[in-house]
Design brief:
Length: 196
Amino acid sequence: MNAGDGRHLLVIDDDDRIRDLIREYLVRAGFRVSAAPDAAAARRLVDQLSFDLLVLDVMMPGEDGFAFGKWLRSRPGDTGRTPMVILTARGQPDDRITGLSLGADDYLAKPFEPQELVLRIEAILRRTAPRAVAGAARACWTVHGEPPDHHGADGSRRRGDDAGGSSPTWAARRGRRRASRRARRRSRRGSRPRCP
């Protein structure tokens, strides 16, 4: 399959020509793409469907992209954590800061290179775990009291998860993994189901 691997994206832009060009390019890159001409239509789609990422214009009639982004981040559960790329003609530093502070994962000013948009989307999707796998891993940790193995969507071990680091977070993770291994060695109470 193509680079997009069938991930479902929502493109929100009031300009039909730009929206169709973005949609066409993302479909060619292997993504499934839905489109909305404004924030109201996007809200209806977000309430009905699950998306892996949103591409959002700022300057739209009615509710602007910043207000829509704020609404999206206020949603409960996975919907509120959906990655968001702001793609707009408003490229001033103040606008970028506003968009990123509202929770956008990236901000790209128009005019833009379509390949750059695809690469930025792919980078964001690599950093975000698939929702089903992440949920199963959290459930495993809750049931068995140990952190899940960190695997990518294809089952391969993700680079960097076990790479050391000097930050307190890495030290805490290493400590939890070591304690978990010691506890497993001590208990050995039979086989447990393998977690994702």
